[in-house]
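[INFO] parsing input record for GtrA family protein
[DEBUG] input buffer:
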Amino acid sequence: MSADTSAPGTTATPPRRRLSRQLLSYTLIGGSGVALDLVVFLLLHNAAGMNEQIANAISTTLGIANNFALNARFTFERRDRLVVRFLRFYAVGLTGIALTNLLFLAFTDGLGIDANLIKAGSLPLVLALQFVLNRKWSFA
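[DEBUG] output buffer:
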């Protein structure tokens, strides 16, 4: 008979509680990646005058690498197949780059809204999308 992980007295974490813990950890770790991403973007775009699309690709790549290392260790506790998992995690990260770039095209290029506002405003949407994709594919 298999153990019910949600039954009282078991040592396994109930699925709903585990999901909540993972989401919290992912969000906190994501915050460090977002901070890194945003600071690098601001430096490259504002201080160095780099095009926002290129600055976004570089800054997001650094955030992705930061988040992968920390999420593999702390959120999803997976240390196997790291190269495959990183490639999947990076592919998910590319969806964030693509989504943000589409928002730049629509709101910065199309409507003239400041790229810094679009970058900051895109982060919660990108975080939610990437959590679902990474949980189901990168760290499954």
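[INFO] The first helix runs from residue 15 to 47.
[INFO] shutting down worker
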